[in-house]
Design brief:
This protein is an alpha+beta fold. The chain is elongated, with a radius of gyration of 30 Å. It has helices spanning 76-79, 84-98, 124-146, 176-180, 210-235, 248-257, 285-297, 333-343, 408-414, 416-432; strands spanning 13-17, 25-31, 34-43, 57-64, 110-119, 158-166, 169-172, 184-191, 196-203, 239-243, 263-267, 303-313, 320-321, 351-361, 367-378, 394-396. 30% of the residues lie in helices and 27% in strands. Helix 2 (84-98) packs across helix 3 (124-146). The chain folds into two domains: 13-235, 2-Layer Sandwich (Ribosomal Protein S5, domain 2), CATH 3.30.230.70; 239-432, Maf protein. The longest helix is centred in the middle third of the chain and has 26 residues, at 210-235. Strands 10, 11, 12, 13, 14, 15 and 16 form a seven-stranded mixed beta sheet that branches. Strands 1-2-3-5-4 form a five-stranded mixed beta sheet.
Length: 433
Amino acid sequence: MRNQRAFDELRPIKYELNYLVNPQGSVFIQCGNTKVICTAMIEDKVPYFLKGKGTGWLSCEYSMIPGSTKSRKVRDISRGKIDGRNQEIQRLIGRSLRASLDLKKIADKTIWIDCDVISADGGTRTASINGAYIALYLAIDKALKEGIIEENPIKSSIAAISVGIVNGKKLLDLDYKEDFSADVDLNLVMNNKLEIIEIQGTSENEPMDKRDLYDLIDLAEKGIKEIFKNREEVLTKREKIVLSSDNKNKILEIKDILRGLPVDLLSKSQVGLGDMEVEENFESLEENAQIKAQEIKKRVDLSVIADDTGLFVEALNGEPGVHSARYAGEHDDAANRRKLLESMKEKENRKAYFKTVISYIEKSGKEHLFQGICQGEIIREERGENGFGYDSLFLPKGFNKTFAEMTEEDKNKISHRSKALEEFRKFLEEKHS
């Protein structure tokens, strides 16, 4: 009998997401000493009986490696046929996962689930179902981002757990010793509405009373609720980042560049700081970006980013530089452009560059800086209706269109801000990998 766990206590569950490189979804799941590698891969075909039916399919294979048990487990290929227990379990996993999908949304595609048990200590089938769902979730998420499928086919999440009666006591999540000596052994699969998808169970000795069955279902439900909660934390572990701005265009641009990362971008208004203004009176973009981020960070227990941008003109000794937004005295884009053209009237050297600096403060308080530069020149008269600031006067190097003549998409591919954000993205990718 268990010594360290209460009768209604799960074994510790650990997940390692994206465990393998090649599958679209993979996870290493550990429940106590039971360990399973689960993968999900999407194939661009369906079984012959579904061809032309406008639907997809999900199939599963389950196996235990030779060293997963105390006595060597013979491989199916050596036996010349699939082990009956393996076949039963892989069918259970397949049925359970298909219950979570709208197969019409993956028309003409098959999702292959593979569950390989590397250490067996009871509950391998339920651990496989729980791990396989996560692998499926990751594969679908990747396929949606890559355009392999258009709609999310997952209609509900599922989870599974074992319960049983051992020496007259009802227990949750049986390990091998408990399972081996159980009077009643039951496996349940439920969806996130706590509706039962499948029950597998048997009374090994004496027949079971119906009241015991209801008690075991209630016990299983408690465990499955915990699994859902734990899984939600694993799959939605997203970083919230506050931007020190309410500029809608800037927010959309940053969101677009950070798309696909486990981060949520919030405007300062979304955290109740819409009226907050920070005086940018330093002589460098770095200091201005840092002070804005630091002032926001004092008020929120979240990550923060702030940026500052300037136009640096070589013939004007770097002006307007850090004072670009108020070059003409007020924050007036048209007045700033007029002053710049007047200052450049007699200048033959038209070289200039835009520079953006991003200050990022992690939730922990650690600070980082990222920068992006776009080289170009100042033309002699305004061109283009798009953009803002000095965009209609800035011709990026190697292009025949000003920023104001480019589409937002084309500008974002080469702009100073997008370059700084790409550096920021690389940092976040490493951080969240």
